[in-house]
């Protein structure tokens, strides 16, 4: 007899042991779901979404899942995580309770609701672990189908490792033999991200196994409202490969048929792993015994006939029947496993709750003691003792309870000697607890961008002025030569060397896998980059124009920007996103939606170089760090002249550091990117009327002026104008808050700080459209002049 995971012949007893262990995991997972719902409904946990009804197919998938493989999945894959040894009962409940200790909730340290799973790709210092020696799960996100783009990149990494020579595969790959496994609910296949990813994977021919868990419902909505023909594999039949056309291998299997599931997943694994062909596994006839989540009951939308069918075809119950019918186990043996599973889950739940509440109860006792001491010395003794008693009586306290009480008491003793003691306790407690909820938005490793040092470009005495795109091109050449793991891909990036020729000749030199054209599909371009970066490659994902970034903003915001945060620093994806924008003419190619971008993607650095040398320096800097970033090149700067540096690939533009590009005494002008050229023009013209403007190039919006150099300028000039081509209240509002509020520049202002932005609409077409839509040199001149007129109307009489 052969086992499910090997081709070796083994004894019946060994086979029985393996299968019964699978059944045990299924029963434990089911009991976790059942008890987990109770924990939510009794108030111990906030929300629950569980994997009941999906246990058996997940067991089969886990059998085919090997070390080095990656999962990009669905928030119901708890059985799979248990089956690969990546989660136990206590950890399951720790996630449900939101335990903020990564040692108890390794999935997210309490930052995500239960059902969102991850393994650790990094150690506690942010260094890569050996991913080839462990089974890997990329961190889940809730947005439906949001896991799909990342899945594409996880699979493509194997193709790169197998086919691109010179890359050090240590820790990351064994000759590209790894498979990326995706899971999704059938209703979520209606999302555009699903179809975009399916198409892209078929084009790229990557080792991906995509499982659709089909229980006929999406929350309460039946498949007839979700999917044409109510059958995702039926409508995807055109993707099936044949002798003449590449495509998918499409497999169908019933979700309650254990032996067929095991066989199907072994076949899927072999095809994807050996041939690098994507596989779709449509797992139908699944159930969802407790409905979508703890927010409601499925009895509200399933009729009696469907509920009866679900009871009969429950996959765990069917597996139990199969075991008995095939004389693998007796009913008594299985009942014993059932009883032990129930006991183990109950004990694990209790242990998880104790681990979760014990430190908080210790903090509770500490605060109660302090409040009683303060009360004994206070004229508000009665009121403080009541608060202390109320806190002490909370059987299951949370940290909010403690801080609310302490801060209320602080108000009562504001004029008493004990105020300092309580204030210190509150400050120390907040400093201790806040990082449990707020750390790792950005990297905290030794390769964070904040630890990189500037290296200035160097020039020969005979350095010639060249089209700025050539600085970029030759710097990319140096990068690709220096870093074999670096690759770039995007629309028109390959054959023609990008729309502005910044990659001219690079595909011919480095090959189609490292400098690649892709289809028109921005979300999965980002997904390719995220997944490959999670597996140790250094991808540069190119979005042709800044306006088109909107197609990918959800992936950037919900997945990439939150990755380090939602794993408490245990996964990273140092992806560089390259795009170009500003000042081109027309509604769809000249937008500057920077306010939307910077507020949606906190967790990604946003870099806005004013020329191509600065941009090249940013790429050089980023490749020595471990953080994701967006680089927005100036769209109208590629043909302007810049000198060619001699230290290509080596000079580094500092991140988070501003640059003063003109000294002045009367007003500080702050801007970035293409607009700076207009600011410089206006500043030169202002000199003719006796106004000396200091110009500061922000260079990076995230992070922003980490050395607080702008406020030093404002302290000298006492006036501030922010010029931006985003809409009113966009990036300019963010910049103004950073300077006036966070840097306290208001202390130095003699005039009201002001902004000059584009109009509220998108820019109109043509040169006149640009002039009347965005700030012009004349607008800047007159805005500055008006500020000076208000300050000294005699010296600067009104223009109008």
UniProtKB/TrEMBL annotation:
InterPro entries documented for this protein: DH_E1, THDP-binding, Transketo_C/PFOR_II, Transketolase-like_Pyr-bd, Transketolase_C
Task: Name the enzyme's class.
Answer: oxidoreductase
**Which prosthetic group or cofactor does it need?**
thiamine diphosphate
Keywords carried by this UniProt record: Oxidoreductase, Thiamine pyrophosphate
Q: Which Pfam families match?
A: E1_dh, Transket_pyr, Transketolase_C
Range of residues in the leader sequence: none
Q: Which residues form the Transketolase-like pyrimidine-binding domain?
A: 466-640
Transmembrane helix recorded as keyword: no
Cite the EC number.
1.2.4.4
Matching entries from PANTHER family are given as: 2-OXOISOVALERATE DEHYDROGENASE SUBUNIT BETA, MITOCHONDRIAL, 2-OXOISOVALERATE DEHYDROGENASE SUBUNIT BETA-RELATED
Main function: E1 component of the 2-oxoglutarate dehydrogenase (OGDH) complex which catalyzes the decarboxylation of 2-oxoglutarate, the first step in the conversion of 2-oxoglutarate to succinyl-CoA and CO(2).
Query: What name has this protein been given in UniProt?
Result: 3-methyl-2-oxobutanoate dehydrogenase (2-methylpropanoyl-transferring)
């Amino acid at each position: 007899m052969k086992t499910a995971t090997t081709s070796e012949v083994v004894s019946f007893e060994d086979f029985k042991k393996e299968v019964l262990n699978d059944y045990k995991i299924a029963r434990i997972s089911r009991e976790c779901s059942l008890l987990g719902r109770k924990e939510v409904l009794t108030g111990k946990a906030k929300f629950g979404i569980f994997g009941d009804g999906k246990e058996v197919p997940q067991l089969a998938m886990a059998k085919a899942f090997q070390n080095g493989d990656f999962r990009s999945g669905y928030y119901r894959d708890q059985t799979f995580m248990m089956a690969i040894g990546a989660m136990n009962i206590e950890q399951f409940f720790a996630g449900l309770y939101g335990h903020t200790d990564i040692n108890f909730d390794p999935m997210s340290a309490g930052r995500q609701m239960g059902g969102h799973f991850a393994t650790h790709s990094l150690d506690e210092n942010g260094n890569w672990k050996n991913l080839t020696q462990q089974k890997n799960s990329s961190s889940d996100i809730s947005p439906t189908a949001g896991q799909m783009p990342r899945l594409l990149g996880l699979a493509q990494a194997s193709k790169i490792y197998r086919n691109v020579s010179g890359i050090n595969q240590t820790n990351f790959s064994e000759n590209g033999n790894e498979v990326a496994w995706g899971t999704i609910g059938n209703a979520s296949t209606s999302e555009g991200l699903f179809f975009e990813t399916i198409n892209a994977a078929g084009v790229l021919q990557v080792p991906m196994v995509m499982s659709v868990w089909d229980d006929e419902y999406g929350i309460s909505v039946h498949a007839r409202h979700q999917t044409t023909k109510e059958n995702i594999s039926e409508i995807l039949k055109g993707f099936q490969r044949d002798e003449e056309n590449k495509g998918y291998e499409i497999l169908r299997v019933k979700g309650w048929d254990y032996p067929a599931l095991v066989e199907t997943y072994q076949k899927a694994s072999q095809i994807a792993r050996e041939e690098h062909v994507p596989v779709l596994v449509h797992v139908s006839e699944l159930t969802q015994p407790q409905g979508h989540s703890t927010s409601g009951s499925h009895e509200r939308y399933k009729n009696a006939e469907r509920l009866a069918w679900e009871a009969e075809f429950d996959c765990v119950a069917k597996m139990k029947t199969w075991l008995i019918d095939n004389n693998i186990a007796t009913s008594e043996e299985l009942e014993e496993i059932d009883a032990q599973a129930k006991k183990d889950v109950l004990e694990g739940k209790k242990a998880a709750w104790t681990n979760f509440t014990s430190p908080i109860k210790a903090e509770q006792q500490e605060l109660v003691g302090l409040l009683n001491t303060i009360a004994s010395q206070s004229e508000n003794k009665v009121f403080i003792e009541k608060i202390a008693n109320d806190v002490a009586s909370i059987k299951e306290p949370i940290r909010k309870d403690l801080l609310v009480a302490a801060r209320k008491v602080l108000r009562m003793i504001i004029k008493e000697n004990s105020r300092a003691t309580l204030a210190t306790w509150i400050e120390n407690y907040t400093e201790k607890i806040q990082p449990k909820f707020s750390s790792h938005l950005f990297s905290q490793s030794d390769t964070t961008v904040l630890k990189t040092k500037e290296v200035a470009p160097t020039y020969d005495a005979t350095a010639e002025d060249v089209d700025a795109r050539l600085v970029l091109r030759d710097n990319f050449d140096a990068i690709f030569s220096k870093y074999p793991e670096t690759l770039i891909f995007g629309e028109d990036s390959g054959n023609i060397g990008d729309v502005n020729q910044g990659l001219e000749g690079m595909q011919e030199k480095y090959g189609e896998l490292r400098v690649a054209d892709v289809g028109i599909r921005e979300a999965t371009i980002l997904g390719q980059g995220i997944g490959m970066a999670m597996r140790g490659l250094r991808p540069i994902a190119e979005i042709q124009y800044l306006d088109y970034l909107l197609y990918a903003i959800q992936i950037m915001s919900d997945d990439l920007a939150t990755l380090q945060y939602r794993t408490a620093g245990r996964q990273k994806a140092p992806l560089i996103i390259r795009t170009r924008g500003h000042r081109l003419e027309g509604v769809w190619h000249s937008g500057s939606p920077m306010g939307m971008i910077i507020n949606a993607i906190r967790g990604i650095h946003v870099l806005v170089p004013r020329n191509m040398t600065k941009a090249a320096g940013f790429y050089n800097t980023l490749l020595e760090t471990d953080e994701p970033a967006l680089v927005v090149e100036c769209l109208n700067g590629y043909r302007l002249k810049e000198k060619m540096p001699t230290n290509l690939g080596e000079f580094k533009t500092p991140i988070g550091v501003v640059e003063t590009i003109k000294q002045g005494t009367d007003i500080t002008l702050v801007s970035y990117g293409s607009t700076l050229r207009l600011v410089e023009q206006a500043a030169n013209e202002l000199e003719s009327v006796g106004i000396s403007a200091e110009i500061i190039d922000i260079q990076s919006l995230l992070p922003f002026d980490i050395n607080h150099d702008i406020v030093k300028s404002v302290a000298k000039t006492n006036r501030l104008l922010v010029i931006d081509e985003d809409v009113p209240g966009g990036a300019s509002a963010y910049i103004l808050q950073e300077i006036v509020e966070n840097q306290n520049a208001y202390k130095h202002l003699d005039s009201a700080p002001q902004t000059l932005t584009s109009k509220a609409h998108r820019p109109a077409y043509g040169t006149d459209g640009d002039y009347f839509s965005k700030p012009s040199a004349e607008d800047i001149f007159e805005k500055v002049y008006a500020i000076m007129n208000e300050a000294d109307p005699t010296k600067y009489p009104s223009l109008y």
